[in-house]
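Repro case for the chain-ordering regression, as requested:
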Amino acid sequence: MSDNPIGASYVYLLEPEVRFLEAAVEHLIPTDELGPGARDAGVVVYIDRQLAGSWGTHGRQYRSGPWLEGTPQQGYQSRFTPQEVYRIAIREIDQHCRKAFGRPFAQLASDGQLRMLQQLESDEIALPSFSSKFFFDLLWRNTDEGYFSDPLYGGNRGMAGWKLLGFPGLPSGQYRDLISSSVPYHAEPVSILDVQTGRVPIDAEGFPKHVMIKRDKEQ
Amino acid sequence: MSATKLKPVDVVVVGSGVVGSIMSMELANAGLRVVCLERGKSFDGDADFHKPNVYDELKYDRHSDIFQNLARDTLTFRNNGGQTALPMREMGAFKPGEMVGGTAAHWGANARRFLPHDFAMRSQIEQRYGKSFIPEDCNLQDWGLDWDEIEPYYDQFENIFGVGGKAGNLNGEIQEGGNPYEGERSRDYPNPPTRRTYQGELFANAARSLGYVPFQGPSAAMTQDFRNLYRVQMLQCVSGGFCSSHVCAQGAKANPLTSVFPALMRQPTFELRPLCNVLRVNKDSTGKKATGVTYIDARGNEVEQPADIVVLGAYCFNNVRLMLLSGIGTPYDPRTGTGVVGRNYAYQQGSSVEVFFDDLEFNPFIGGGMVNTSIDEFNGDVIDRGPLGFIGGAYITTNTRGAAPIKGKPVPPGTPRWGAEWKKAVAHNYRRTMSISSHATCLSYKQNYLDLDPTYKDAFGQPLLRMTFDWHDNDLRMINYMQERCVEIAKAMNGSRMNGKNKGTHFSLVGYQSTHNVGGAVMGADPSTSVVNKYLQSWDVPNVFVVGGSAFPQQPANGPTETIGMLACWAADAIKESYLKSPGALV
Ligand SMILES: Cc1cc2nc3c(=O)[nH]c(=O)nc-3n(C[C@H](O)[C@H](O)[C@H](O)COP(=O)(O)OP(=O)(O)OC[C@H]3O[C@@H](n4cnc5c(N)ncnc54)[C@H](O)[C@@H]3O)c2cc1C
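-- result from build under test --
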């Protein structure tokens, strides 16, 4: 997908925000021997598209006041949309980092970034506008979604998330006969994007043709 | 603004879910002119839910793009009367639907009958354990229905929704392979049971070793190609996951779109009007007769549809809200305990334990249609509650619904929430985990109720429904006991690790639980504790029928929809066979 310039551009996020998020999501799901991390899997592009769309602007949320903080059981009660929350919170975290360490989050050393994320998660950083945990939870939710949703949305590049799990993506029509099987089924994952772009053929019923992965021994 | 007044029809049905579609079908079949008003959009079976786009977890499960648009209508919530209720701003614990086909278009297809005990819980508990065994603030009550009179309507619904299963009690004789604790059935299911998964096999062996009787729980995802009672053809389920919260592209999951609408749209006396939001039921000057309903059409016009009979099938929430907005029945007052509309709101308890196996590998993505293996020893009143000190029960099950990658990757306890260790744990466990859960009763309590919110309004300027609800002590003790049983079974499976989960001591809107909201317009034999009689007919305005989970006096363990479908068949028959012959109160 890297040959597609759309996949390397941003609709909503500003440059400093991209740098912040690339650094942050790479700590949440790091690159390791198991495969690419969230940054290389395109999670920041995913977040950008989500913020620009209906979800980021609370298109389907109840949006009238009065606005009260509520109890944890009452759920999301902020009057700000995710779009606004990302912009405001990233700016405030960077300001905090500048004050404390002389540089924005993206320029901290790796262990400094990690420590900052942990403090945001445990609500130890007092941001002017939001609880830092509120922002962290939103960021983690979106990172997880971006890494594991269909590559159609810009994340999960190369189906890194699905390969990590051994999830074959769209079902094969063969499943009909495998429901009781105790033999592990391993196939190259297929995404909506693969079928829409004609990269993977479909059968007469519309199911993709799975290519099985040969596995010699325990991996 | 004066409303456009249309020509009268025989029946106006509000909502097009399980209730709306089946009632419309049955009444149009009897030759009545039926108009069904649905606030959501219509559908194009070929274009709306096609492959590959249906296989989108983000869109359907996470963002719930086809569920109720909360920007227009939601409800407010608080745990108790001392708090200020706030709007449910994003979809959380439950996901009511808004489209032709209703919530039911994206249901999970777990299609269980209730047990005979469930319909007579108060009288049977009082008889067996004494009155004082029931918590004082619990509004437990009987339904006013006999098993023998409703059994044929369960059978009818199963033959509309093509339910697959194996009878456990056929005309009083216990059948090998079925659920021995089920109510007596007049005939077997129309389709064979689901095939057992590897996970189901492990569960069954463990359950047997503890002396329980495992069975394949019924499912309304077709276990073979099937032509239903309405001569509609459905295809065999492929077990490709993406089932609950999704619409099935294969047309294998029974729901109003696949099982009823293809036949209903051919009925000459039926008319479907999508994008019409009903505001209220209108009454004549006596207040004892409904004259029809008023709605807002897609262009924003206010329209009055006169009708001889009004059927509310607008899901639990809007059934109750429309009754309150229309001034039908006395609203419940929690301080005095009087009044009935909004009384006895209930939900669904549950718990689960995830079992991790280092040495086994599953195909957790193969499944759907709530393929499950279950036991019923702890359901109904099978075991003695006396020594346990609580009422209520659960079925315990393992189901393979197709583990999707965003929500379906459990990790063992002690795993960090993110980072390299979490990534390793997710990779190791996704294919090595199965879950055992309890699906349990939720009783009704004086403090749990629905009324109109004093502050927040919907897009039409009408008050939102307000929910005041929390878990109560009896139900928490019950679920702890059920969770211990789940853990016992899990231990008998010799997993490497396990992780238990429950719903906490306070009900929370955060995170999906189930769309099993019931009560608020309950049925019964006594008008001082019920809104509708045993035929789902309003005590106060007899040409209004209020049908759905709203009629349940409390929530049994077994999931509501099979019984909602049964009640739709039952109420339609009462209208056809009795009401039409002599319109007026049937009781
Ligand atoms: C993800 C999910 C999984 C589920 N799985 C199961 C399961 O496995 N087993 C089970 O038993 N149950 C399950 N359920 C519950 C099941 O979907 C409901 O019990 C069932 O749909 C209720 O049917 P109904 O006809 O009463 O309401 P609905 O199906 O909700 O239909 C009501 C319709 O009324 C319309 N409406 C509401 N207000 C108005 C108005 N003012 N004017 C016009 N139209 C209006 C709505 O738009 C809707 O289309 C599940 C639900 C969900 C969301």
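Ordering looks correct now. DSSP finds eleven helices and 22 strands in chain B.
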